[in-house]
Amino acid sequence: MLGMFDSGSGGLSVLLEIRKRLPRADVVYLGDIKNAPYGGRTREELGALTVLDIEKLLNEGATKIVSACNSVSASMMLPMLSILGVRPFDLVEMVGPTVKALRDEKRKILLLATPATVSSGIYRQGFAVVDKKIGETAVPDLAGMIEFGASGSEMTEVIRKAIGEERGFGVLLLGCTHYPLIKNIFEKVLQKLKVKAEIVDPAGFVAAEVVKTMAENGSGKTKFLITKESGLFRKRVGEMFGESGVEVEVI
Question: How many CA atoms lie within 13 A of 164 on its CB side?
Fold first, then answer.
């Protein structure tokens, strides 16, 4: 069984891409809404939350782990996996598949991500391995605004300020799994700023890696766990995966 975790509903964008490719896999998804967003957490806090999240997934019967949270880096997770008895090759995270997919990209890449992701340098270091430099901009509060349902106008202004005077990039890389949930707002901001750039969601790259390394057949059941009640999470699950056969449990 595949186990996925994120700070809330952002990872649903990754799960949707996995479902398209592995309709028969059994999946348990954990959204840690009680501690959301992860993007403003310290490395120590993220490490502790990661252990708790993976433990919960293992207790549910997960044998392979997908980290659908960009703020949780692979380097942070490896010692945690050792403690919990999970082998590194039973893990897929967000950064590696994204770097591999974009290693030959000729256009300038601008990464928008949470403060935790940008300060960790995980994307910057990852692209440096393939001899690429990227631009990076932290967007405080946006993941939380998406998770808890801020207005479109509020999120538009936050994105506009984040991009600011950045120009010359041809790829806008969404470095937080919450961001694709409002891709239409990113598109409108780029249009208003008269910036012609492709918006790239890493979810497809991650899903392809899951298929390559973790392909499993089962009954196609998906179980959703959340650490705090959220009508918005339930609404998104219903919209993205259909009402029938969806189980959401507060733990």
Answer: 10
Q: Please name the helix (run of DSSP H) or strand (run of DSSP E) that holds residue 28, with its range, or none.
A: strand 27-31
Q: What is the pLDDT of residues 46-97, one digit of tens each?
A: 888 988 999 999 999 999 999 999 988 655 665 556 566 666 558 898 999 9
DSSP 97-131: HHHHHHTT--S-EEEEE-HHHHHHTHHHHHHHHTT
Instruction: Tell me: do 44 and 58 sit in the same domain.
Output: yes
Which parts of the chain fold into alpha helices (H)? 12-21, 43-59, 74-84, 95-102, 115-120, 122-129, 142-148, 152-163, 183-192, 203-214, 231-241
- Cα–Cα distance between 153 and 195 in angstroms, integer? 19
Distance CA 18, CA 11 (A): 11
Query: Mean per-residue pLDDT for 149-157?
Result: 97
Which are the catalytic amino acids? 69, 176
- What is the total count of domains within the chain? 2
Instruction: List the CATH number of the domain containing 119.
Output: 3.40.50.1860
Whole-angstrom CA distances from 148 to 76, 162, 207 are: 27, 20, 26
Tokens of 31: 């959204």
Residues 6+ away with beta carbon under 8 Å from 96: 74, 126, 209
Identify whether residues 62 and 185 lie together within a single domain: no
- Are 185 and 144 within one domain? yes
Please name the residue that has the structure tokens 């270091």: 125
Residues 144 and 194 in one domain: yes
Residues, the chain, total?
A: 251
**Domain extent at residue 39:** 2-93+204-250
Q: What per-residue string of b and e applies to 9-33 under the rule 16 or more CB within 10 Å gives b?
A: bbbbbbbebbbeebeebbbbbbbbb
